[in-house]
Design goal:
By secondary structure, this protein is an all-alpha fold. It is built from 7 helices and no strands. The protein has one domain. Helix 1 runs parallel beside helix 5, helix 3 runs antiparallel to helix 4 and helix 4 packs across helix 7.
């Protein structure tokens, strides 16, 4: 591999790592602030479950993009199907998309769900339950939901990759999210 290519990969890894740091920092501050204001175990549980589902969905997209067929999206783009161009771009850049979806968003969601789980444990312990039991139960539940959900999602993503990426690409096209796609004019 050429020296320039290695430098580009290292630079991208550093940028992604720094981006993940600031994303985790931002989301942690927001979630910590929200959790401190919550007095309801139900509301805290719902927020925690939403973060877990968010991480699972991004993991699903990250897996699907690596299994999708770029030619399908080129055919869609040629027929001017909404999301065809965006889908081709996502699949062509599968390594980057998977890194962002699986590693950045997925792992940050997992870390934050752990922190939120600790906040939830504190809320529950305030209602005079056994501290150690609550912590173990919440940690185990978060791990089980996250790992089980991602396993189920990966299986689905491998078999329905083109459909999943088409949905994501249509959302990107609908909201006109700029992927810096170079268009011929």
């Amino acid at each position: 591999m050429a020296r320039e290519a290695k430098a580009k990969i290292i630079r991208r890894a550093i940028i992604v790592g720094v981006g993940a740091f600031f994303l985790a920092l931002m989301v942690s501050f927001i979630s910590k602030g929200v959790m401190e204001k919550l007095t309801s175990v139900l509301a805290a549980t719902v927020i925690l479950l939403l973060i877990i589902v968010f991480g699972i969905l991004f993991d699903l997209v990250g897996t699907a993009v690596t299994a999708a067929d770029e030619d399908v999206f080129h055919a869609m783009a040629a027929k001017r199907v909404p999301g065809g161009v965006q889908g081709a771009y996502l699949v062509r850049n599968a390594d980057r998309v998977a890194n962002i979806c699986n590693d950045v968003v997925g792992d940050v969601s997992s870390a934050i769900s752990g922190a939120l789980g600790a906040g939830l444990a504190i809320l529950i312990v305030r209602s005079s339950l056994d501290n150690l039991f609550v912590e173990i139960l919440i940690t185990s539940s978060i791990a089980g939901l996250t790992v089980g959900g991602k396993a189920l999602g990966k299986n689905y993503a491998m078999h329905q990759a083109n459909k999943i990426i088409h949905v994501v690409a249509r959302v990107i096209a609908k909201f006109r999210i700029d992927l810096m796609i170079k268009r011929k004019r």
